[in-house]
Amino acid sequence: MEPTTKLDARFSDPNATPTPWAQAREQLIHAETYWLTTVRADGRPHVTTLLAVWQDDAIYFCTGAEEQKARNLESNRHCALTTGASALHEGLDLVVEGAAERVTDPGKLKRLSGAWESKYGGDWHFDVGDGVFTHPEGGEALVFEVAPAKVLGFRKGEYSQTSWRFPG
User: Fold this and answer.
1) Domains held by the chain: number
2) Residue 22 burial (CB < 10 Å; 0-12/13-18/19+)?
3) CA-to-CA separations, 14 to 17, 71, 105, in angstroms, rounded
4) The whole model's pTM is what?
5) Residue (of 137, 146, 163) closest to 81 by Cα position
6) Where are the alpha helices (DSSP H) in 33-164?
7) Is 90 exceeded by the pLDDT of residue 115?
8) Domain range holding 32?
9) Which end of the chain is least crowded, N or C, by CB within 10 Å?
10) Residue 139 maps to which CATH number?
11) How sure is the predictor about 134, in pLDDT bands with cuts at 50, 70 and 90?
C-alpha cells in the first residue's frame, strides 16, 4: 500500500526533498528496537522500548497481558512506535501512529513467530497458543498489529520532515 507523501517545508531545509516511502519502510523492517508510547487510563503517557517486526504493511509487537502497555491498550488503542538513529546530524528517525489491534488468528501468529525468530534469532522463538505467543520457558504474550495511519520521518543532515498518510 502506497501512502500519500508530503514534505513539511516549515521544518525542512530550503532545498530538501521528501524522503521516499521505500527508504522509511526499509528502516522499519531492519530497525532492531522501537519505543512504544501508549496512554494510561488516567491520561499520563507510558513509554517503553521493545522489539517489533514490520510485515504486511503493518508493525507488530508483543507483550504480557499484565504489562502496563497491554493494560493501557485495553482502554485506548491509539499508540505510536518510534525508531531511528537518535543522532543529530545523520540518519532518519521515524514515528508510526495508529491503533493497536490484537492478533489472534493462528495462521497469522505462526507467520509472525517465524518473522520474530528470523529477525532476532533463536532467543526470540515463540510457539503459538490459543490466540497468543507462548515461550518454551513459560509465559504468554499478546500480539498487536499497528497498521499505520500516519508516519513521520525526520531526516538529519539535509534536514527534512516528511509525512506519509495511509488510506483508511
Assistant:
1) 1
2) exposed
3) 9, 44, 47
4) 0.95
5) 146
6) 68-75, 106-120
7) yes
8) 4-165
9) C
10) 2.30.110.10
11) very high
